[in-house]
Amino acid sequence: MSKAIRIGLIGYGFMGRTHSNAYSQVGHFFPKDKLTAGHHIVRQAVCGRDEAKVKDFAEKWGYASHETDWRKLVARADIDAIDICTPNDSHAEIALECIKHGKMILCEKPLALNGAQGEKMVEAVEKSGLPNLVWYNYRFLPAVTLAKNIVAAGELGRVFHYRANFLQDWTISTELPQGGAGLWRLDAAAAGSGVTGDLLAHCIDTARWINGDITEVSAMTETFIKERVHTATGKVHPVTIDDACIFLCRFENGSLAQFESTRYARGHKALYTFEINGEKKSLQWDLHDLNRLNYFDHAVPGDRRGWASIHTSDGDHPYSGNWWVPGLCLGYEHSFTHALAEFLKSLDDPKAPKAYPDFRHALGTQYVCDAVLESAKTKQWVKVKKA
Ligand SMILES: NC(=O)c1ccc[n+]([C@@H]2O[C@H](COP(=O)([O-])OP(=O)(O)OC[C@H]3O[C@@H](n4cnc5c(N)ncnc54)[C@H](O)[C@@H]3O)[C@@H](O)[C@H]2O)c1
Predict the structure, then answer these.
(1) 14 lines ligand 1 (CB under 6 A)
(2) Does the Cβ of 201 fall within 6 Å of ligand 1?
(3) Which of 50-59, 174-183, 333-342 shows the lowest per-residue confidence on average (mean pLDDT)?
(4) Strand, helix or coil at 183?
(5) Closest ligand 1 atom number to CA of residue 136
(6) Is 302 helix (H, G, I), strand (E, B) or coil?
(7) Quick one: residue 179, left, alpha or beta (phi over 0 = left, psi -120 to 50 = alpha)?
(8) Is 15 in the pocket of ligand 1 (CB under 6 A)?
(9) 80 lines ligand 1 (CB under 6 A)
(10) Model pLDDT for residues 29-83, shown as the tens digit of each residue
(11) Which CATH superfamily is domain 140-383 in?
């Protein structure tokens, strides 16, 4: 008999919606025979602080019940797994409470506000043996997984360079407050950091997954708008997040890298790109054209050599065969469904290697973020702790 995983979702904002969409899709596109095997999702309860809004969300997204206090939700006997979709300052507290109550955890990124918090989460979850996942979702886009598979097969030969950007432009206005729905990202107390933990953390997760560990970093950050009104007090307060961050680093495999992220690149909404240059091949990916992986193969005869653009929608591309017919596109939301399918697969077969980042892997990414922020402060190269 397939086992039900009864989900309790905390937070019904942007990520609450993407995850709810994944919960409703996964059983249709990555089906399990409910009579014989595996695990399937049940949308058991959602928690938010506003009773009317959370009730409305539960009805709209098919949750059987709702709560207004996350501690009550975590303590409920009819919940198997908690999905943490709240701002970063609550991840550690909620996760530690989940572990006390024996709940599996699916936690949004970044893992925590900093490495010290993350270490407590890793220690507790590993001691408990509870399954745990962090939603670094970009890995699960077919083109990104294909890039990982090509590198893992050794096809690039020696890797020389890794380059990643995540560019946005939504905080340029001085009128924007800090704090409140969505805008907690501008408040260091709630977010931990600015673009480093919010955007570069994604780039770092993908990079570490594809190209291995980062050993040392040298960074600079800037806060372009120094003061903003805080929604909690109505008063002007200093802004202490990083609005932009650029860092250089070395990977354990000897390759050199540069990463850049900003919310001040006028014209760019979410331009996440990466490029990897190896001895034999190069790869390039762009979130704005997410179904394509650009691929350069030096083995092709010189007169026909050039960048090819692979549309990763064929049945033999990662995840694509579970969806439509070749040539049709997938989108951002599918990455969450794929992450969830991998999580369920690992519950079916706990000994198989996991394709998703767990708390320990996310701690490694947190350590890189911490080293980047320290380097920007001290203006020195900083060694990255090993997770
Ligand atoms: N994986 C990704 O691509 C991605 C994208 C965006 C955000 N995130 C991460 O997801 C998390 C949430 O971000 P978001 O964009 O959904 O934020 P959001 O502001 O849209 O939603 C946050 C939700 O948390 C709720 N909340 C806050 N405190 C709460 C509490 N004490 N009890 C119950 N509910 C509470 C809010 O009411 C809101 O519903 C963050 O950690 C963020 O870094 C990840």
Answers:
(1) yes
(2) no
(3) 174-183
(4) helix
(5) 1
(6) helix
(7) left
(8) yes
(9) no
(10) 998 766 667 899 999 999 999 999 999 999 999 999 999 999 999 999 999 999 9
(11) Dihydrodipicolinate Reductase; domain 2 (3.30.360.10)
